[in-house]
Amino acid sequence: MITSYTRIAGQSLDRLAALSDGIFAVVMTLLVLDLRVPVMDGHEHGEHPLWHAGMWSSEREVWHALMEVGPHVLPYAISFMTLGIFWIAQQTQFNHFARTDRNLTWIHLVFLAVVSLMPFSTGLLSEYVTYRIPFVLYWLNLLFLGLMMLVSLRYARRAGLLKAEATDEVLVAQRRRVYFYQVCYAAAVALCVVNTYVSMVALILLQLASALAPPIPPFNRY
Which of 37, 104, 120, 179 is the most buried (most CB within 10 A)? Predict the structure, then answer.
């Protein structure tokens, strides 16, 4: 009897989890590269600011330079929390998988590919924080992350890859969370029509709420 390769490929859940941990670690580290150390006038020419401006003048220059980094801090904080939230979401799914197969493994590889786009969408957002297009692209990044989480749950259920304790109530709880926050993300990004900074503050408040995990209203359908 001939065994199909697709039947035996990609069945190691442990290896998939290890790959996921590695990619999340790298991507979360790459986010900080957008926070560049500011260079003050004089430093770029090899001078020490105390030699030409005095102590108090130099301190003011430092604060002024740090203020230029400010617009990059909020996107970094939002994305770091976002990646932490989706890492927990993926680990929650892994905890309810009895095993995996080639298709489910590829679903999570696509999910990790979307994760790896976060430094780009974050850098675009922090560099052009007053424009709306970066917010829309950032929202699309969040949308596809949530979509892949839903696809993973649906496939795992249909393929019989879930543990016995992964009851309908457990699956509904996971889906409800994805639906709720995706709607909230869309609403937060829509605020960029009013003001992009308002939209950014709304996003970071949403991520804080998600991290604190308040109860989510039930839905009749899932």
Answer: 104
Q: How many domains does the chain have?
A: 1
Average pLDDT over residues 22-44: 78
Strands (E), the chain: none
Is residue 1, in this structure, part of any structural domain at all? no
The answer to whether 61 and 49 are in contact (CB under 8 A) is yes
Q: Distance between CA 222 and CA 216 in Å, rounded?
A: 13
Q: What is the pLDDT of residues 117-147, one digit of tens each?
A: 999 999 999 888 889 999 999 999 999 999 9
CA nearest neighbour of 185 among 135, 149, 222: 135
pTM greater than 0.70 (yes/no): yes
Half-sphere exposure of 217 (CA within 13 A, CB side): 6
60 pLDDT tier (thresholds 50, 70, 90) = confident
Residue 25, in any domain of the structure: yes
Q: Which residues contact 32 (CB under 8 A, 6 or more apart)?
A: 76
List the domain range (segments joined by +) for residue 60: 12-212
SS3 per-residue string spanning 45-89: HCCCHHHHCCHHHHHHHHHHHHHHHHHHHHHHHHHHHHHHHHHHH
Nearest-10 crossing angle of helices 13-30, 55-96: 160
Residue 220 falls within a domain, yes or no? no
217 belongs to a structural domain: no
Q: What does the radius of gyration of the chain's CA atoms come to, in whole angstroms? A: 22
